[in-house]
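Our consortium's second objective concerns turning raw sequence data into structural hypotheses that experimental partners can test. To show how far this objective has progressed, the report includes one record in full. It was chosen at random from the queue rather than selected for favorable results. The single chain below, 415 residues long, was entered without modification.
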Amino acid sequence: MLVIDKKIKEIYSRNYIKEIKIHNRMKAKMIIGWLLMLCFGTAQSQNLEEIIARHIEARGCAKNWAQVENIKISGRYVAFSEEKDFWTQKGSDGSLYSEFWMGKFKVTEAFDGTSGWTIDPWHDFSFPRLMNKAEVNALLQKSELATPFFHLEKEGIQSQLLSNENVDGVECFVIKLTRSNGFEETWYLRTDNYLEYKCKSQWVDFAQQMSAESFYEDFRTINGLVIPFYEERNYGQRNNMQKISTVEFNIPFDKQKLQMPKSPEMQKLAFLKGQWEVKAEAWVARRNKWYPVDQTTSQIAFNGNNMIEENIPLTVDYVQPMVQQFSFHKSTQKYRMTQYNDFNSETELFTGQFEGAALVMDKYYLPSPIAPAYMERTVFTPVSDNEFKVEIKTSTDQGAKWDDSLKLTYIRAVK
């Protein structure tokens, strides 16, 4: 028994030692694997940083681009197989204003770095409109002075180095960028000079998001800054080309152009804007005389791009806080005014047009076989840059004769 026990112990001992050796070898392999992964990750990170640094240097270096407050480029733009002039001005704050032709229609784009508007007749209307998220993302790309690699950290853009690719016979580093808005871009930087060769991103066509490929060529050095004078973009069935002929730095940039323009019809009502001291007078027919009834204030401003709103507390026997909103109805080619009276919680609708310099607005009545026995008209007449008057008239004979009722004189308040 003792011999057998001893033999068994020797077998167990050998197996135990063998297991320890196997465990140690596995542990060593795991440690080596971790070290390799760590080294590879560190090397990849260093490579990414180096590639980006060399790209920035190849584009003229961050120090030189930091001196650029704005840049204006002009040249020829090709779209819908037609080549016409274009010009674009960009600011270091991400702003952009551009005028170019998409075939037979001239397109205007403006961007303040956050939101933008456009006038694009291809959408079957000629008035300006706000851009949607896909269009804003395209403007973020257009508004770059150089490339997004110059401000990755500032804009919260994440970068990832992918495997190199050969594109059209050009060996490229491939870097994926994810902007803070969630949109992704894949940039292809040449391995021989670190300049961008291609970019895949989300673009827009007729306000619809779609994928695009952009190509950059003909790099030239202007004032120490390297700029691609040729850019071609393919998206959907479109193929656009931008050929730069002139580059100007730090010239006056009229930021007023970034504001969405009002419609011509609403610009005619601009005389209403401001803070006003208002004198109210009531007409007493039996005495044939105006009598003062209130002295109040009014605030009138654009609320929205093409709507004007007035807030005025008016006392005629009772305090009547009024909110009036002015707009233009394109289908009927008439102005509309809604008048909300907080005294009785009622809203009235007025419609009308300019008659000479005066805006004449008549109270709207629902269609009826019986003509209204009482009608009301409000007339707005500019007097000067600092004064206008409002006349409220009534009629009891279907508008054959209008009688004075109330007169408001607006004098611009002294700041």
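The partners drew two points from this record. The chain has four helices and 23 strands. The chain has two domains: 62-258, 264-412. Both points have been shared with the crystallography group to help prioritize constructs.
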